[in-house]
Amino acid sequence: MSHSADPRPMTSRRSGPLKGEAQVPGDKSISHRALILGALSVGQTRITGLLEGQDVLDTARAMTAFGARIERVGPGDWSVHGVGVGGFCEPDTVIDCGNSGTGVRLIMGAMATTAITATFSGDASLSRRPMARVTDPLERFGARITAREGGRLPITIQGAEDPVPLRYSTPVASAQIKSAILLAGLNAPGQTVVIEAEQTRDHSERMLAGFGAQITAETTDEGHVITLTGRPELRAQPVAVPRDPSSAAFPVAAALIVPGSEIRVPGVSRNPTRDGLYETLLDMGADIAFRNPREEGGEPVADLIVRHSRLTGVTVPAERASRMIDEFPILSVIAAFAEGATVMNGVAELRVKESDRIDAMARGLEANGVRVEETHDSMTVHGMGRVPGGGTAATHLDHRIAMSFLILGLGAQEPASIDDGGPIATSFPDFLPLMRELGAELG
Ligand SMILES: O=C(O)C1=C[C@@H](OP(=O)(O)O)[C@@H](O)[C@H](O)C1
Ligand SMILES: C=C(OP(=O)(O)O)C(=O)O
After folding, report:
1. Does the predicted model carry a pTM greater than 0.90?
2. Strands 44-48 and 378-384, bridge-based pairing
3. Domain ranges for the chain
4. Residue ID of nearest Cα to ligand 1 atom 3
5. Is 101 annotated as ligand-binding?
6. 235, 324, 344, 427: least buried by Cβ within 10 Å?
């Protein structure tokens, strides 16, 4: 479901030192997958720490439409009674995935090898995003697919009657493409193989193994090769969702740029396929300690202690991009407060997210007095150690753009504004109270 249609302008201003603990929400990628795999298993899956952002709520509603029984037991505590692999029933309404690329692409994969028909839609942002990257391989499983011009939503999928397994090299580094294919492969007899040139986030692989699927991953001359054996009986599992490193990035950034700050961010996922931002920040000279490393819900987690830091610009290599793909907007804000240029290479995928994130960040940073250079697949932010601020950024229905510019204002000389804070609820519904609790002046 799309969030409120009324734009909500917001402003943030230079704040005193940020202090305290930031309990960021559950990981969005893992939350989507827990609901989908719960719906595809036999028995009751109990999920704790689920992100209750709009993107994930839309996936829960979609799973109900395909026949799963889903209940909210308490805050972040959800129960899913699944229908088993191949057990989805035909929905009697259009599946509206709102703003969520992960939701729509994974769910299209999950139903494409079951002989039912479903139509998918999304908000204005999702309806602009490319879907052929997923529907092309799904057609090769035997599904019949009709899309709007350019392979966009709305899309109708007639699931394969007699699915055949697929061997597929992904053309771009994308965990959503990989996951859609693996989920489709669940109901195809035999082995489905996905080959990635760069390894992307591996939550689907970890969780499929946890639910009892036979799945292997190895690095060969071809790349990172994942092999799934189809038609397993997935067994319902408890899932404890770790806190989202992509959401943690916002309070972490705020503490780094606001003088005198020191915050603690407990229980954040340290999955090595998601740690590119943290590696980059350490390169820039950030004072971040990772305390109490441990395993929770099959994922490595740690408590972060973050202090205000003097930062220096760095070059982020293209090979790191997929390990921090959602963190470039907030990195470009942090880079504006650093001394010198920060160069981000190999980031063309940012142009097909909820907005064209290179364009949205470049225009918003310029409006706040920061010099930016861009090419199709790179962005350079010229940091001056201070940010004038005073500008308004257009957020284009993009939660990460909205949060990034609110964080910028906390350290800038003049307040910074955004045209619409509504999209924040897609991934971080408690962003404003959490930041205010740390001492941030925003709203
Ligand atoms: O699989 C996932 O959960 C995600 C994969 C990434 O997208 P791509 O697969 O398009 O890179 C990321 O940007 C998105 O926020 C979440
Ligand atoms: C790109 C993102 O999400 P999605 O692709 O699921 O819309 C994101 O959360 O930054």
Report:
1. yes
2. unpaired
3. 10-25+242-442, 28-231
4. 29
5. yes
6. 235
CA 110 to centroid of ligand 2, rounded, Å:
18
Q: Which residues partner with 300 through β-bridges?
A: 295
β-strand partners of 121:
96
Architecture per CATH, 28-231: Alpha-beta prism (3.65)
* Residue whose CB lies within 8 A of the most ligand 2 atoms, among 24, 102, 424, for a mutation test: 102
Q: Which tokens go with 346?
A: 């190999």
Q: Is 187 in the pocket of ligand 1 (CB under 6 A)?
A: no
Blockwise average pLDDT, block size 10, the chain, 443 residues: 72 98 98 98 98 98 98 98 98 98 99 99 98 98 97 98 98 98 98 97 96 97 97 97 98 98 98 98 98 90 98 98 98 98 98 98 98 98 98 98 98 98 98 98 95
Query: Which two three-digit tokens encode residue 379?
Result: 């962005």
State the ipTM, two decimals: 0.99
As given in the structure block, the two tokens for residue 87 are: 């057990």
Task: Supply the residue whose CA is at minimum distance from atom 5 of ligand 2.
Answer: 101
Which of 89, 85, 106, 130 has the alpha carbon at shortest distance from 181?
Answer: 106
**According to the model, what pLDDT value does residue 5 have?**
64
By the 10 Å C-beta count (0-12 exposed, 13-18 middle, 19+ buried), 234 is classed as: buried
Question: Which residue type sits at 216?
Answer: T
Distance 240 CA to ligand 2 centre (A): 21
In CATH, the number for domain 10-25+242-442 is: 3.65.10.10
- Going edge to edge, which strands form the sheet with 95-96? 95-96, 117-121, 152-158, 144-148
Taking the CA of 134 as reference, the closest ligand is 1
Active-site option among 326, 398, 419, 420: 326
Distance 175 CA to ligand 1 centre (A): 5
Sheet holding 287-296, edge to edge: 19-21, 262-269, 299-307, 287-296
Question: Does the annotation place 29 within a ligand binding site?
Answer: yes
Note whether 10-25+242-442 and 28-231 share their fold: yes
Which atom of ligand 2 is least distant from the CA of 102?
Answer: 6
DSSP state for residue 356 in the 8-state scheme: -
Query: Which two tokens mark 236?
Result: 């319902």
SS3 204: helix
Q: Which atom of ligand 1 is nearest to the CA of 172?
A: 11
Q: CA 337 from chain center: how many Å? A: 25
353 annotated binding-site participant: yes
